[in-house]
Design a protein that fits this description.
A two-stranded antiparallel ribbon has the order 1-2. It contains ten helices and two strands, in the order H-H-E-H-H-H-H-E-H-H-H-H. The protein is an all-alpha fold. The radius of gyration is 17 Å and the shape is globular.
């Protein structure tokens, strides 16, 4: 029998993120003007956009697609989503996605959406599965690697772009996924240091 991660300690984090996304959507167009990732605004020290750009969306279909993705991730890896840990991972995935866009994709001036950060949470969760000895973690990483490679070579889906009324920022997916793996490795290293210090 499949056990769903319904406990508050596993579900509150994703629910908080979903709530912020919905609030930002209903605050449009003000939220898009002040919260979306905007290279020129960030250079003008509106640095909050590095995080908030991941919370705003272009239209209702965009919101629904990303909230569905968040729900699927919770169903897949919810047992790893203790509140403080999930929120830390999510925020760092947002930062990693935006930093990747800023430094590595200078042509991408404007960005909005949760998908980059979700790719990061996905790869982090897959790495957590691997740490627990689950072979499915390797399959998940391989699957997302194939998806990212396909996107880099072929570009975004025209159908999805039309649905969300924006070009799909495939680079954001790549930077988010890499961020998730790096965050996992950093957390693993810090955990190892902590255990070594306790043992000594």
């Amino acid at each position: 029998m499949i056990s769903l991660p319904l406990s508050p300690q596993f579900s509150v984090g994703p629910l908080l993120v979903a709530t912020l996304v919905v609030i930002a959507f209903y605050a449009e167009p003000t939220s898009g003007q002040w919260l979306a990732y905007d290279r020129y605004a960030i250079e003008g020290l509106e640095t909050w956009r590095i995080i908030t750009g991941n919370l705003v969306h272009t239209n209702g279909f965009h919101v629904l697609l990303n909230l569905a993705g968040l729900a699927l991730l919770w169903l897949l890896h919810g047992e790893h989503y203790r509140i403080s840990r999930f929120l830390k991972v999510f925020v760092w995935c947002c930062i990693g996605t935006s930093a990747g866009i800023y430094f590595l994709s200078p042509y991408l001036i404007w960005y909005a959406g949760l998908s980059g950060a979700l790719h990061g949470v996905f790869t982090w969760g897959a790495c957590m599965d691997i740490r627990r000895g689950l072979r499915s973690g390797w399959l998940l990483l391989a699957g997302v690697a194939v998806k990212l490679g396909y996107e880099q070579f072929t570009g975004s889906s025209d159908g999805v772009a039309e649905l969300i009324n924006a070009t799909v920022a495939v680079d954001a997916h790549l930077y988010g996924a890499i961020s998730g793996v790096l965050i996992f490795l950093l957390m693993l290293g810090l955990s190892g240091r902590s255990q070594a210090a306790t043992a000594s």
